[in-house]
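Section: Multi-chain targets

For targets with more than one molecule, the full set of components is provided together so that the structure can be written out for the assembly as a whole rather than chain by chain. Components appear in the order listed by the source. The example entry contains two components.
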Amino acid sequence: MKQYQEILDALYEVLKPFASEANQRLNEETQLVADLDIDSVRLLELLMEIEDHLDISIPLNRLPDINTVRDLAVSLQELSE
Amino acid sequence: MTRSIFDKFQYYANLREDVARLDANPFNVVVEQVLSETEAIVNGRRTILAGTNNYLGLTFDPRCIAAGRKALEEEGTGTTGSRMANGTYAGHLALERELAEFFGLPASIVFSTGYIANLGILSTIPGASDAILLDADSHASIYDGCRLGNAEVIRFRHNDPADLDKRLRRLGDKAESALVVVEGIYSMIGDQAPLQEIVEVKRRHGAYLMVDEAHSLGVLGERGRGLVEQAGVEEDVDFIVGTFSKSLGAIGGFCVSRWQELEHARYAMRPYIFTASSSPSIIASTRVALSILREQGPELRKRLWDNAHRLYQGLKAFGFRMGPESSPVVAVTLGRSKDSALKVWHDLLDKGVYVNLVMPPASPTTECLLRCSLSAAHSAAQIDAVVDAFGALSGRILEN
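Its structure, encoded as tokens over all components, is:
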């Protein structure tokens, strides 16, 4: 099982370029679509990168509940259990 | 400001505004008069239809028309009922038997459309304790079928058996009841699944495999059974789904399986139960089209593939960005600008050529596509006219 902070750090790393492009500061409340302006196609690609990074598969069924960086981190932590 | 139930459609409202500036809407093309399998009057102009999925060109086959007409006169315009109630006629069962025989498999179900076939199978066969692994570029009907059911749904990278392998490994014991879903020919770019490699992976994990042959039935394989036949993996595929609305020139869908148990699931499939069955005339013309596919398939396929190669080579010569291989689906990739894509599509129509305009999210990337599909009924002269129309716009297509 991965630690929450470890997952969060990995997410910040992957999301950094998007935050910089959207001129946003990353934190747990950052909204993936609204704040980082990531479209649905790019978001799915991005999730695949995160999956590889953490060696986890994120089921599509979970996506409707994921809005913020925190939602994603919590979901990833649950999946890593 | 008052909140409207229609606020969420603003994106489409904007798109409509963009389209309104043109005198033709790519998403609402009206075929004013059908002239043949490959030509129609569109926007008041004689137009070559190069985006209809009418692969074998059977929509005007006199034998199919005669069978449809006979059924129409003898059995009426519709069944007015579900397959599970009054909507199963002798023809529906005969078509199921004929499909099973064609594929050499014991189980077969006919659905009202191909979309419904995917909804029925994917929402019912894998349950809450199972997983579905679908290719990322799967058709919307596959995604929607997954959404309708309760299985865990995981995407793997398009045509990437190694990525599939990794994701099956992550599932642990659950991989044994997982259903892997791929397509024979992918509808947007026309590329094929690397089926032998995918079969190796699914075997290694003991998973099940479904292949959607919507665009490959009648198009691939010595007997026209699709990519599963061409790749020589018929014994390793658990479910084949397909449609009657492409090579068979009508509308409807099916699933055939090596598992007789498919029959048990029939009455658990809500998309099968809660819709009316296909009209008798549709079933009748489809049965004849299937028999034509069996008897004249090789000849029709040769014409189709000759046309596909001719178009692919012709367009490739302009230096367009295209799919990796020649296929009855030939797509030219444009850029991200929807406005430019709309204009190029419109100008092709103005030159008497209809192709499909595909925009994100329907396209597999963030770019727009001009998608052509070929027919055995196209003449070489028609293909050349399509190539010429693209050629006349090549500068704008390349700078997109």
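Chain B has a mean pLDDT of 96.
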